[in-house]
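User: Structure please.
Assistant: Input sequence and predicted structure:
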Amino acid sequence: MSINWLRQNFFFSLGCLLVATTACSEVKSTSPTTIAANPVPSQIAVSNTTQLRVAKYKGGWDLNLKLAGLDNFSYKTQFTEFTGGNLMVQSINAGAIDLASASEIPPIFAIESKASVKIIATLKGPTVGQVVLVPKDSTAKTIANLKGKKVGYVKATTAHYFLIKMLEKVGLTMKDINAIPLSIPDGLSAFRKGELDAWATYGYSIPQAQKEGARVLESAKDILSGNFVIIASPNAIADPQKKVVIADFLCRLRKSQTWRESNLKQWSKNYATTIDVDESIVYQDAKQGQQQRRQELLPVSDAAIASGQKVADTFFQAGVISTKVDVKQLWDSSFNEDIAKCQ
């Protein structure tokens, strides 16, 4: 997906959201549920009629909450499936979604497009599954050997960012390679057909390509921060009733991550079935990630903001975005106390 498309279509119509699928659930609690740190009784009563509209990836938050036994919401929840964080940001801006997650990158483009979105928490996780691959018969030994070569990458994603940083380290820019923006499926297809000399990618495409002889030219594990962010609608944050249920949802997410880290085998089996990927690949990837860093939901911090600013500055210097942006305006720390109190 092109950068120009991202800039021009943040204020798109809701009709463009037909790529999403929606499922609603309403579970009545049989006993009182604490939905935020010391909420007043009126907040608890009103939350039972409040609907939280949540964007999720396939096999994402809804699955984790269910497996951890944390999907007994005392308010209405609507989960809508998306394929990327950029689409989630657009949907929040269009008023269709209250809560979502993305890498650090989509919100940066939201600033330039003047989209209405806030970052309310950080999801810290591993970075091992982000690499530049080369075919098995490649003679490339370093990123410097890619000068003038056809390199696939996923535009406006972590792959775009780490490719820029890898090239920068060896004195090159994106202009020194034949950079080809491709989606993950299209990239994997092109890589298999021998149409790419290298491919900057992430996720389960890596072990799939490695099974066919691909090798890692360079890993981005020490380039990326591991920060994913939780983004919310400013209107939802400003609604006292909805803010209470967002605080509860964040706490449930945090607890579900703790459950996942202690039940990696069970999670891998269910996740693999949901996304239709071999269980052994999912489990191996999850174990490698856990060895590097355990997943954790964290409050807004100066370090997280600084990390986002570093990414924004890199994109500006590389000419990916046209103006230098201050990411601080994206962040809202009003949920920090609720996250800290979540046990």
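Residues 1-46 have pLDDT under 50 and may be disordered.
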